[in-house]
Every structure is written in structure tokens, then in C-alpha cells.
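TA notes. Do not distribute before section.
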Amino acid sequence: MGFFTDCANILIKYWPSFFLGIKTTLLIAFSGTIMGLALGLLVGGIRAIKLDKTAPSSAKMIKKVYDIISWIYIEVFRGTPMMVQALFLFYALRPIFNWTYIPAGIFVISINTGAYMAEIIRSGIQSIDIGQTEAARSLGMSNMQTMINVILPQAIKNAFPSIGNEFIVNIKDSSVLMIISITELMFQAKSIAGSTYKLTETYFITACVYLCMTMTTSFILNQIEKKMNHSKTTLPQSDTFAKTMNLAKEQEEHERTY
């Protein structure tokens, strides 16, 4: 009983510090995930675009160079620890941006998440039936229009569980940002443990807080997923293909009429 009494006393006395750590953790994780998703859409979306054989040689060369650069970016940030990335980027770019700790943390999370999101989005795009692209092209859409209006919305829907999982991962992995003195939950826990000399109790509370955050986030994401009518076990049968084909048929009938 003494263990849990000590935990309760620490929580009552230091709850403002825990609360500040929770707010900072959620801010960095959420902002980093959103910005990482935007970066992943850009990188993964362009990587998934296939140029026509009739495309100019200059466009093919630019696309090839882009694919090489994006591949290097993805492999480097997926193949190195976030802690190392945080230390390197914070101190290497600090003379340029002169940034404070929170923007630096969001930047590190965003860049790291973007590498994973790029592959998630690319996989989501590849899961879309090629017939939808052909139907969209038959309506006169360009590659970019097809990607933005037809493919990407479905790819994001298909990849939503993985995108949500990245958010949960970022809530936990943000703990490594304490290495650059960001006052997230783990940083606060370390400070409290150093003040009370009760390491086991403090880190037990911290583990429980992380568990509550991830379980709550998982529950919210599951509710959103249900709203989207997205199956957890199989990819959904999107209505976009049927709508696109109906538009193509209507155009054909219109052309036959006139």
C-alpha cells in the first residue's frame, strides 16, 4: 500500500508539472503528425505518379532526380533513430533558424513522420484499382487531376489506420525529445523523479499517463474509422470507382446522342 500511497502523493503534489508535460507531448505529437502527413502526401503522391511515354525528356529527368532524392530522404529518416535526428537537426539548424525548443521538436517529429507517411500514402495509392485511373483519364483528366480528385482521397481513407497509428507512435516517441530539453512528459517525469528520489513511483505514474493517452487516442481514432465505414481487416470497396465509371458512361451516351 505504501507504493500506491507514494504515487498518489506525487501525483497530487506535482500534477501541474505532469499536466504541462501532457500538453506539450500532445501538441508536438499532433502538430508533427499533421505536418508529417502533409509532407508524406507531397512526397508519396509525387513518387506514385507515373509519367506517360509521351512525356518530355526533361520531365522524365526531373521525375527521376526527384525519385532519387525522395528515396534518400525516406531511407535516411526511417533508418536512423529519432533521438539522433533530434540532436543533429537541433544543433545543426539552430544557427540558421535560431529556434526555440518546441518548434524544433515539432520539426523533428514532422520530418521523421513524413518519411513514414510517404510510404504509407504510396502503399495506399497502389491499393487503388488501376481501372479508376483509366476511367478518370477517359474523362479527360490529367495525371495530376486524377491523383488529387480520384486516387488520393481513397488512398488516405485506405491508409487511415496506419496514419492513426503514426499519431499514437509519435505520442510515445516524443519522449526522446527530452534529449534537447523539450519539457514534454518524460522531461517532467525525470525532473520530478530527481526532486523526490522516488524513481519507481514517478515512472509508474508516467507509464500510466502514456497508457491513458494512447488508449484514449486509439478509441477516438477507432470511432473516426467507424464513421468512415472503414473495415479493420480488409480494404473498403470505395464508391469512387463506380461514380467515375458512371460519369464515363454518361459522357459516352452524350457523345452518341450528338
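Switch to the second chain here.
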Amino acid sequence: MTETTNFLAIDLGASSGRVLVGGWDGEHINLEELHRFPNDPVIIQSHQHWDVLRLWREIKAGIACYARQHETALSGIGVDTWGVDFALLDAKGNLIGNPYHYRDARTDGMMELAFQRIPRQQIFEQTGNQFIQFNTLYQLLSMAYNNDPQLEIADTILMMPDLFHYWLTGEKATEFTIATTSQMYDIRKNSWAINLLTQLEIPQGLLPSVVSPGTILGQVPTTLMSEADLRQPVSVVATGSHDTSNAIAAIPGLDDSSAYISSGTWSLMGVEMAEPVINDQVLALNFTNEGGVGDKINVLKILTGLWLLQESQLQWQREGNDYGWDELLALGEQAEPFQSLVDPDATEFLNPTDMPTAIRDFCQRTGQPEPSTVGAVVRCCLESLALNYRKALEDLETLTGKHLKTIRIVGGGSQNSLLCQYAADACQRLVVTGPVEATALGNVLLQAIATGHLPDIAAGRKAIAASFEQQYFEPGSKNAWDQAYGHFKNLKL
């Protein structure tokens, strides 16, 4: 009987966190969820923060779950999270304050302030990043501009996965893929863009060294082993610590003619490239270059994803209507098609207090019928997301010169069969979905490579293809989608 090697993947998303165990038997990877928990922002004096101490407690609880349920010693632990957010530590390594949530309003107007000091094109030339107001650069600029005392006593800045790796090992370092989400990293020189921080009067001495994905950072100390009931030492691996890079690493069949979508609260749509693509066209279309694994660069567009529906569902719950996902999708499918569309990336959808009302207000402002039923809102959201994918796909083909024949969707959104079919119809491409747990699988894959159990990403993708089923969505009739797309493009102007 083949012995199974186990790795612990700690996957923290913007709305929930999971601790999973991935087992590798030499041919297949299996995945078991040990512990799941919500990751909700905490509002303190009108500011949104992450509750990182509770997340740390949940991480330790997940490790303890493994220790209780499995006799086999762990071969690795890795953490991945969403991008851009960070924590500050003092000179003794203690956490300073509560890390801010990227949707906090403190970054309002900060991009415009940055452009007064540094031309937009100059920032892009160095970082290759998409301009979004909550990027790390603008979060730090807001602190510097407002003389936040936390910056005065800070000694180190750690991105979110790096914070948890530090608490797991005592080692301070930033992993490459998460560093490239900050808009503070020179992706061509492979170093921090120090001069940008200098020009914006942001302290640059806070930045730690950058390590490659797949770096073994150290081992869990004995005190933490005791807390989490671990019986044997275990290595901690900086995987593709940005959750998107891990998800892309785990996409079976990803090739030069494939686009990917990592689908969840956000939809990240792009292609793998050997080098960053930094030119005026990429700047004009507002795409980003992010670090990938296996010496790849992810050229992608960060699009609003299922956030519109997630927030609508929460609002309906607040109103006393507890719709499940299956019920919402059934109502959406029954609704009249192409009655109303929105631009999912419009600023009014960043953090509204009432998402269905924000959607109706957008439709009213743009001269469209206001979706008056739950099903109409669902249909509006899903059709708009699919048409947004089409726009991003066209732009990707323009930027890369490639004909992208297949769209490969992974993550939680890949379970939304209605959205996947709409994506196939809108884009007139074959859509292949799965695996759902791509982020955790990529985490496990990178740990297996780091510890010598797998040779490379290609071998890992083949193992994932052999271990998990995929679904296929063929494109249907295009005429109605073509007409809707013409209307949608006008909303994006």
C-alpha cells in the first residue's frame, strides 16, 4: 500500500477561511476540509478592519483538528490569502493595531494624490500593476498623508500571509506573488520600487526581503507545537501566498490558448506569460502583471466577481428572506433575459450599504428598467459578469496577440453553473470548470514541490487532472448576447 504524504493548506479568503489537508499518494491528490470559519470585517469607529487575532486562533484550531484526526506526521504547512492588505510590526515584532480592510474608505482620493506627485505612467512602468484605489501603495499613502502614528513606530510591514507565516515560524519575509499585488514591487527588476515610496514620503525601511514561492521558511516552534497538539516538527512553506497564484498553479490543461478565471468574490481573468507585459496598451486597458509560480507572470484583469450577488443575498437576509444559492440561481434563470445590465466594476458597487438598491439606482441612472424582483437582480448580476468576461477576453487577445480558445474557471464560482453557461455564451468559447478548491490544491502542490515530493508544476497539474473531475460548457446561440454586449460596452464608457 502506497504511503500518503500530508500537507496542511491554510486558505484565507476575503469572506471565509479554511484549513484543509491535502494527501499525495504518488498518483492522486485528495483534499479534506478540517475547519471552516467566517472572515468578516470588523467596524471600529467607522473604519473596517480584519480580525487577525481571531483568524490566528482559527488557524491554530485547524492545526489542532489535524493533530486529533490524523496519525501521519505533516510534511508541510502553507498559508495563502487575498492580496494588498498588510500588518505593521514594531521593533520587537509585536502587531501594531488592527490591519485595515481593503474596502475601508481611507483610500478615497489617494490615487489622485499619488498622481499629483508621480505620473500615473511612471508608477505603471515600474510595477506593471492595475490601478485600484485600495492597492497597498495607496493604503500606505493615506497613512503617511494623515500622519498616522502607527507609521512612526513601525519597524516591518508584512502582507497578510506573511504575517501568519511569521507567527508560525518567527521568520519575517515577503513571498514574491503577494508582494506583486502591492503596486510597490518592480516586477522587471525583481525588487521593491523604493523610489516610488521615497517620492510619496512613505518609509521604505519597513520592507522585508522577498522570497520565491516554494521557499521553506522554517519550522513550527515547540511552543506552538504544544498549543496545536502537534507531535512532530513540521516545515512551513511560503507557497504562492497570494491565493490567485495558488489557484492558477492548480489549473489542469492551462496552456497558451487558454484564459483562466479564478472566480469568487473577485474574478481574476488572465493568462500565464513568461515575462511581464508592460506597455501603453496594458496601461490604457488597466490590466495587471502579478507574480506567478514556476517563473511565470500572471497578466490579468481584476474584475468584480460574485460580490454583487453575495452582498445582495446578505441584504435579502437582513430583510427576512433567507434565499439559498440554488434558489437564487433558479429565480435568476426564470427571469426575463437582458432586461437590465450593470458595470460590475463601477465604484458604487465597491462597498454599498444595500447592494440591490445600488443595482437599481445604477439601472435608473443609465435609463434602464430597474430590476424589481429577486430573480431580475440575480439575472442582471450574472449576465453583467459574463459580459464583463467577454470584454476582458477581447482585451487579453489584443494585449497578447493570442487566440484564446478555452476559458478555464476555478474556485467557488466554478460551481455556479448558470454563470459558467452564460460565460460560454457571452464569450463564444468552451468553458471548462474545476477544480473548485484550486487555491488549496495549488497550496498543497507548491508544498509538495518544495519538499521534493513532486518535480514541478506540470506534474502537479497532471496529478490534479487525474484526481478531480471537470465540467464542460459549450457556447450556445450568440445573437442575443452580441446585442446585449453592444449595450454593455456603452455602460463601461
